[in-house]
Amino acid sequence: MRRFFTAVTVTMTIFLLITIFAPDFSFSESENELFKNLDKVKLQTPPTAGDRSVLKDKIICIDPGHQRVGNKEQEPISPNSQNTKPKVAPGAKGVVSGVPEYVITLNIAEKLKGLLKDKKAVVVMTRKTHDVNISNVERALVGNMIGGEIMVRIHADSSLDSLKRGVSVLIPSKKSINNPILAAKSRKAGEIILKEVLEITNADDLGIVERDDLSGFNWSKIPVVLIETGFLSNPKDDKLLNSNSYQYKLAKGIYNGLIEYFRN
Ligand SMILES: [Zn+2]
């Protein structure tokens, strides 16, 4: 009798776990024998091919770069550094449009937030308006505080060479964050997101760039990437970055990348 109750309890627990984790739940080959009967339950759950539910309950922090008014006050570049940097740089401005970077980054971030929330991700934005005063260190601390699983920082680039165009993804260097796992996860996310963004936008590939000088990276305790979505100093990129449909493409690329990141 006691054995029976144990068996019932174990079975119910397994069913409960399946209910909780379905439809993402699946068994590995080695567990097949043990869960042979329960496999039928798995087959009854809706098909997950193409399903974005991998994002469900994932805590994702989005940091739309910059703000209406920059802040030149200094803050330490990393927790153990004497070096300092301005709290928030003013950001770039469209060479033709005149539209500031902080407007474009928030527009893309809002679109990304919409896509992620549709799939039940928990999205926290470091800012929702332009009239804030949040330093790059404070933005990193938001990601840490909420126990974020990843921080996506959205920026646009600028160069003295007005012909320069394309997308790059910045990631923290192993040395600067002194945490190989965090560095590896950030690199993995960066590579996947860059690939997905390039696929959807056809932008020039400027690759992955390791940075050890960004306070927004060095203070982060969660995987973090910064996507440079294009060059506001280039007339063509400026036009694209100001278009609703291109902003959506960028958001969709990042979103696809996050799905791939969490799936693997
Ligand atoms: Zn920027």
What does this structure look like?
With 264 residues, the protein is an alpha/beta fold. The protein has nine helices and eight strands. Helices cover 42% and strands 19% of the residues. The strands form two sheets. It has a six-stranded mixed β-sheet, sandwiched between helices. Helix 3 crosses helix 9 (244-263). The longest helix has 22 residues, at 180-201. The relative contact order is 0.16. Mean pLDDT is 85; it is low at 4-49. Bound molecules: zinc ion. Residues 65-66, 91, 101, 155 line the site of zinc ion.
Jot down its keywords.
264 residues, alpha/beta, Aminopeptidase, 2 domains, two-stranded antiparallel ribbon, 9 helices, 42% helix, globular, binds zinc ion
Mean of pLDDT:
85
Bound molecules: zinc ion
What global shape is seen?
A: globular
The CATH superfamily of the largest domain is identified as: Zn-dependent exopeptidases
Which ranges are low-confidence, i.e. pLDDT below 50, for 5 or more consecutive residues? Answer: 4-49
Question: What is the SS-derived class?
Answer: alpha/beta
CA radius of gyration is 21 Å
CATH architecture of the largest domain: 3-Layer(aba) Sandwich
Care to count the β-strands? 8
Major beta sheet summary: 6 strands, mixed
Spatial order of the strands forming the largest sheet? 4-1-5-8-6-7
Count of discrete alpha- or pi-helical segments spanning 4 or more residues: 9
Number of domains: 2
CATH class of the largest domain: Alpha Beta
The CATH topology of the largest domain comes to Aminopeptidase
Strand content: 15-25%
End-to-end Cα distance, whole Å, is: 43 Å
Run of helices and strands:
HHEEEHEHEEHHEHEHH
User: Helix coverage percent of residues?
Assistant: 40-55%
